[in-house]
Amino acid sequence: MTNEEYSGMLECSDTTLSYRSGAGDWTIPISSIRLIAEYTNSDGPWIDDYFFVFLTAPEGGWHEASFYAKGREAALCALEKKFGTQLECGLCGSTEYRTRILWPAELRDQALMDVIPPKKQNLWQRLTDSGARDIVLSDAARQAFTR
Hints:
PH-domain like; alpha+beta; four-stranded antiparallel beta sheet; 147 residues; single chain; three-stranded antiparallel beta sheet
């Protein structure tokens, strides 16, 4: 599998943003984007661990693209012109789970998602805990849909 097949291809036209990869494809109208964010996890270096998120709705509007996608720079530059702001990546050195809103500007640098702490566990539950946590949109991210 080539890098393009795995990490995908991100393209921005006059009216749409598209992502194609072996994991799935999507196309959304640029006018429907309400929030742009980035997040990292600890899955690297052998698989992608850095992603962009383009939210069009608080529920079911999650459109994700690999940071390593071909065409990333051109697509981000086109979006900067459309939105009239810089979309500066800020998580490039992260090797752990982190999130950050890039746009809208008034929400920049705030968390995209919040991790819900686990409920109190007994000893057996702690020993067998997989480490998975529930993750929800942050209050800051939800503000993008109320403005």
